[in-house]
Specification:
alpha/beta
Length: 351
């Protein structure tokens, strides 16, 4: 007598994750299932599955967000299949586009998971994820740095203080800071306000320098090969190289430049209906932080690399924003080539 192997039943769990509670929807390959609320603890879900769905092949999914990848790593440690998905990839039909609750979100995730329409985003390893947190802390400080500079200029303008022409630029030299400290007002309260802002400015300035130094030092030590490969490319400095290593991870995981440019957001958008086709500019779906870094790096590449400069001049006459996007994509292509070939960049070789 022959015995046939029985495929284990499948369980699909859609999770809408929040800080204090999770909304869960469980469905199987035969039944639509049920929804319930539970504490935000993976162990509680494990106990529930072991009690009610023992022997099932479990697949879970939840939206990427503020809760990170801790739950995903716990689910994988239980032997489950786990996906962390981009919220934009979850298809909504009809009134689902206009009705949103935690229960509906969990049901949608479970339904899309069951139908096989969800793909997981890239999950970084723990080391790179925690390095990314330091890089993002630096970007938060840069935003605060620009903001406090604007506040100081605003106060000087409000009180009718004219900044000398030699200091009226974005670079705040030590002479300019000394000049600000020496200003005299009619009453001490205005002076105290300005002193408070200058103390905050100096604190942020020191923090940015400190974190930037630690970022570069860590990448030089733990990602030495890729760091120096990236630094060989004109336009890519130490911080941009750290950003690529932190935010994009190992570029070898990208199959080609089309794959990478789509991820970063330097791919063209197209809208076609019948015979009408128009360009919608660069895609809205992007890694906005790294896209801005590559665009900034492109301006530097134009100044330092004659090949990039010639490429830029070839397109002169078009919209400047359009040209710099072309340069940024070329720089991105060059970056991928350097990492995949593991050969430092030489002008005129990797074009």
């Amino acid at each position: 007598m022959k015995t046939a192997e029985i495929t284990p039943p499948k369980l699909y769990i859609g999770i809408d994750i929040h800080k204090r509670s999770w909304k869960i929807h469980c469905s199987t390959d035969l039944f639509s299932g049920k929804s319930f609320t539970m504490p935000s603890d993976p162990e509680v879900l494990l106990n529930y599955v072991n009690k009610h769905f023992k022997g099932y092949d479990v697949t879970t999914a939840y939206e990427a967000g503020c809760c990170g990848y801790y739950a995903h790593r716990c689910f994988e440690s239980y032997g489950w299949n786990s996906l962390v998905v981009n919220p934009a990839d979850i298809h909504r039909k009809g009134k689902e586009k206009y009705t949103k609750t935690d229960k509906i979100d969990a049901q949608l995730i479970s339904r899309e998971l069951k139908d096989g329409r969800l793909d997981s985003i890239h999950i970084p390893e723990v080391e790179r994820e925690q390095l990314r947190s330091l890089f993002r802390r630096r970007n938060d400080l840069v935003k605060d740095y620009r903001r406090v500079k604007s506040y100081i200029k605003m106060q000087l303008l409000y009180f009718g203080v004219t900044i000398p022409e030699e200091f009226d630029n974005n670079h705040w030299s030590h002479k300019f800071r000394t000049w600000v400290d020496s200003l005299v007002f009619d009453y001490p309260t205005a002076r105290e306000t300005l002193d408070s802002r200058m103390r905050y400015f100096r604190f942020i300035d020191k923090e940015i320098r400190n974190i930037s130094t630690k970022l570069r030092a860590y990448c030089r030590k733990h990602y030495k090969k890729d760091y120096y490969l990236l630094r060989s490319i004109p336009g890519i400095g130490g911080i941009v190289a750290c950003g690529i290593l932190c935010e994009l991870g190992d570029l070898r995981r990208f199959n080609n430049i089309k794959h990478l440019s789509g991820y970063v957001g330097l791919a063209p958008g197209i809208h076609q209906s019948g015979d009408n086709q128009r360009s919608t500019g660069i895609t809205m779906r992007a890694h906005r932080l790294m896209r801005s870094y590559f665009i900034e790096a492109s301006w530097q590449a134009i100044r330092t690399d004659p090949v990039m400069q010639a490429y830029y001049r070839k397109h002169i006459g078009k919209n400047v924003k359009t040209i710099i996007i072309k340069v940024a994509r070329k720089l991105l292509s060059r970056t991928l080539a350097v990492i995949k070939r593991e050969i430092p960049y030489t002008i005129g070789v990797l074009e």
